[in-house]
Amino acid sequence: MPSAATSETGSGVALPPATFYFRCIACSSAAQSASQDFRCAQCGNLLEITDPSWQPGKLDASSLKSIWRERRSSNALLDRSGVWRFRELLPTPASEQQVVTLREGNTPLYELPRASRATGVQRLYAKHQGMNPTGSFKDTGMTVAATFARQAGYRWVACASTGNTSASMAAYAARGGLRALVLVPDGKISWSKLSQALDYGALTCQLRTDFDGCLRLLQELVRSAPVYQLNSINPFRLEGQKTLAIELLEQLDWHPPDHIIVPGGNLGNSSAIGKALLEMHEIGLIQRLPKLSVIQAEGANALFRTLQEAHGKHLVPVQAETRATAIRIGSPASWQKAVKVLQATDGACEQVSEVEMAQAKAEIGAEGIGCEPASAVTLAGLKKLLRRGFIKPHESVVLILTGNLLKDPDFTMDLHRGTLLQRTPHEAEEAKLKSFRHPPIVLDATLDAVIKALDHAEKSDVNHSNA
Ligand code: F0G
């Protein structure tokens, strides 16, 4: 396993010596290196990475802000990455030569004028992590974790995945000269994500189980084979994913939004964003903490139930079922980290139905940006949090869109063709999606037919706006 005391110099530019170490999130035991499964040797809980150089007094907030801004006009390899640009708050690799990067990060922050009008939230933004090199937020963590896997001399990296992690890992492994082993649930991930892993050359195994079963098998595998695990249990992943929040705050000129809303699956991303917010607050980069809220699909609501039924004290696992396959997870690995950051930032957890998620996805599509279904739970969750009075319309809200529209074309086609909920327990609700549909129409190749279609669309637009 990569240790904190990395002394390799490589042939690239030397970076400052590594000072980070691993710390258990439960018993706070500290260690210079981590075991294969990234669990605490004392109590078995998850590890996180920390570094004394990130503490207040060691880092000056205003110089960090200006260094990071200056790097935006630099052509140096590390500065062009929207992750390594913030390297003062990341574990340091031995040399620049070790870094595996595809220029991840640097993702846009969009306004959402239509959703803003519909919800009454005037300052409503979407941070679109689907604009990363492989189309999801996973790339920001993968650049860091793949770098440390390569530096430690591993030949094989591996992950269990609902699709996006495998696509990202396969890409970064290929760039870093590593072999990739992918374990995915058979028939339960989207074809476009699966095809990415194939194209990037991963050894791809479709296992006859669900994501939770794939993850269990991976845990066994890393204990018995020299394979480096790149799931979000790997704390290097979460360090990279912290930069989503740092970049967001930089885009908002360091004025924190009142709320950040993120989808929850295995709960690595929410944990990473929360860790970043707490570190930025401690260093003085921001003066107050946004509330971080996690939204889950009703059919994969382990965190929601853990908080409701067990007050966050023990995990309430579920048998997950949702058309948002990215978050079809019943036993989230990082649930304790997520509970901690929700409590520390005073955030909330909500669940949304399949119909609510599909409507929200169509609404985000209508903004001209689109996203994959799992990302759309954020807008659906915002509506619920507004109804609950947890979010007020005058407050500012940022939705984290985790994946690109093109990640799950089957969902989008089914939504518009009116077949999304067929043969599911929610079949009777399909009609609620009618006004969101824009199905393709097949016509004779004549001018008359196309003009008629145009007239028809114009009339229904007028009827719609009068309705
Ligand atoms: N959104 C998308 C698009 C995802 O792919 C995932 C997770 C999540 C949200 C949830 O993030 O797990 O950090 O809470 N996808 C993983 C995968 C599990 O294997 O691609 P999380």
Enumerate the strands of the largest sheet in spatial order, edge to edge or round the barrel.
4-5-13-10-11-12
Helix content: 25-40%
The mean pLDDT is 95
Distance between the termini: 62 Å
Low-confidence runs: 5-11
Overall spatial form: globular
Please identify the structural class as seen in this structure: alpha/beta
Please count the helical segments. 15
What can you tell me about this protein's structure?
The protein has 467 residues and is of the alpha/beta class. It is 39% helix and 13% strand. The protein contains 15 helices and 13 strands. It has helices at residues 61-71, 77-80, 113-119, 138-151, 164-176, 191-199, 211-224, 235-251, 268-283, 302-310, 335-345, 354-365, 373-387, 409-417, 447-466, and strands at 21-24, 30-31, 47-50, 109-111, 124-128, 156-160, 179-185, 203-207, 227-229, 259-263, 291-297, 349-352, 397-401. The strands form 3 sheets. The protein has a 6-stranded mixed beta sheet, sandwiched between helices. A 4-stranded parallel beta sheet has the order 8-7-6-9, sandwiched between helices. Helix 5 (164-176) packs parallel to helix 6 and helix 12 (354-365) crosses helix 13. The radius of gyration is 22 Å and the shape is globular. 50% of the residues are buried. Residues 5-11 have low confidence and may be disordered. The site of ligand F0G has 22 residues, from helix 5, helix 9 and helix 13. Ligand F0G binds at residues 136, 161-165, 232, 263-270, 326-327, 372, 374-375, 402-403.
